[in-house]
C-alpha cells in the first residue's frame, strides 16, 4: 500500500456509513485503490438495507444518494447501475475539482461533466459536504477509540474479522448511547 512515506505491506478498509453514523458495511481488500470497490460496497449497502427493512418491518426503507470521494472516480463508477451517487471529481477540498463548471453540460456531455455540474450546484455542494461529516468521524472513531490504526493479526481473513468486530462494537455502543439499552433487546 502506498503511504506518505513510501510503501508498506497493508490492506485497504472500506466503510459505508449511514447518515445516523451506523456502519452499514465494512470490507477489507488487498487493492491499493478505491475505484474497484464502489459496486461491491453498493451491493453490501443493499444487503444491509434489506436486513434493516426485514428487521424493522419498514418496506419504505431505501438507499438515498451515496457519497464517494475522488478515489472512486471513474467512468464505470459514474455510469454503473445502482443508487444515485455523488463522486468527487478531484482531490482538492472542492468536491468539483479545480475548475467547477458554470453552466449545465450539453446532453451529449460525458458522465464526468454531468457529475462535475451536479457537484457545482448548491444542492450538490450541500449534499456532498455531508460525506466528510458522516464518514470521517466514524473512520476516526475506529482508528482512535477502537485502536484500529493497524490490524492485530496477519492475513486478509483475520483483518476482515477484526474490522467487522470493530464495526459491530461501534454500532452496538452507538445504539446503546443514542437509543438506550432497550434498542439492543429483541422482542
TrEMBL record:
Domain of life: Bacteria
Domain Transposase DDE: 110-175
Region (Disordered): 82-109
InterPro entries given in the database record: Tnp_DDE_dom
Start-end of Pro residues biased regions: 97-107
Protein's name according to its UniProt entry: Transposase DDE domain-containing protein
The organism of origin for this protein: Phytohabitans flavus
Amino acid at each position: 500500500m502506498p503511504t506518505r512515506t513510501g510503501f508498506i505491506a497493508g490492506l485497504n478498509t472500506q466503510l459505508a456509513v449511514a447518515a445516523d453514523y451506523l456502519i452499514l458495511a465494512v470490507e477489507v481488500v488487498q487493492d491499493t485503490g478505491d475505484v474497484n470497490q464502489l459496486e461491491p460496497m453498493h451491493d453490501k449497502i443493499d444487503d444491509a438495507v434489506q436486513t434493516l427493512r426485514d428487521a424493522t418491518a419498514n418496506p419504505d426503507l431505501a438507499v438515498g444518494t451515496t457519497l464517494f470521494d475522488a478515489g472512486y472516480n471513474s467512468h464505470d463508477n459514474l455510469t454503473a447501475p445502482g443508487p444515485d451517487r455523488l463522486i468527487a471529481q478531484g482531490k482538492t477540498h472542492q468536491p468539483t475539482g479545480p475548475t467547477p463548471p458554470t453552466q449545465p453540460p450539453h446532453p451529449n456531455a460525458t458522465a464526468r461533466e454531468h457529475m462535475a455540474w451536479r457537484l457545482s450546484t448548491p444542492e450538490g455542494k450541500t449534499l456532498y459536504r455531508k460525506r466528510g461529516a458522516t464518514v470521517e468521524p466514524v473512520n476516526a472513531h475506529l482508528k482512535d477509540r477502537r485502536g484500529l490504526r493497524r490490524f492485530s493479526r496477519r492475513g486478509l481473513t483475520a483483518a476482515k474479522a477484526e474490522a467487522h468486530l470493530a464495526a459491530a462494537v461501534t454500532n452496538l455502543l452507538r445504539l446503546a448511547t443514542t437509543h438506550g439499552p432497550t434498542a439492543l433487546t429483541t422482542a
